[in-house]
Amino acid sequence: MNGAPPTGVDVDLMSPDVAATHAVYTSLLGRGSTNGAFGFGNALLRFHGDGAAGHRVSFGVDNLADAQRLTKRRGLDPDEPVGVTDRIDLPLWPDADIPRLDHLVFTAPTRDHALALFGATLDLDFRLDRHIGGDTRQLFFRAADLVVEVVVGADPAHGPTCRLWGLAWSAPDIAVTHDRLTSVGMAISEIRIGQKPGTRLFTVRDRALATRTVVIGPT
């Protein structure tokens, strides 16, 4: 903040079965956790028992105390599923075929709400506003090496706050990752062409992941 984009994210996922969620992420990411958390590159991922608060994402900043004061002055609603935390800058897992988180997807009640929260309050760099049909549009923000996609108008009964809708993991060689996950019996889709030019992706279909999940990579 204060001109520096947030760096990395701390993701807290709510799950009715934490043990199952931990096990499926071990398979997805191809590595075990440390003290129950998966931390590498630009993301720290933890799981908690199902609760009313829902999933939460905290964006890493260089000066946490200053960022907390600034977001408070800017009126950050504590009911929003986002906040700030210390800078996330962890070692990459050597030889991992999923080395980092590519982007997060949120939903928002209105375009103005998304711009105020992710742009004006959290200082993310607003990059693109795209109409995708009907009353639905996608807004894209950047936080260092992470993209934040916000879908507006997809849920008419959305409510007053944003929600974390899904996670997209980066795979430099998507065919290698697809083959690995197929070999361990994970329920995944076929690889398809992504909406972003030059990308391919596949969906991971396991409810224990606790949120919608895709793996994305270059063509």
Automatic annotation (TrEMBL):
VOC domain ranges (all copies): 100-217
Cited PROSITE patterns: VOC (PS51819)
Descriptive protein name: VOC domain-containing protein
Protein species of origin: Gordonia tangerina
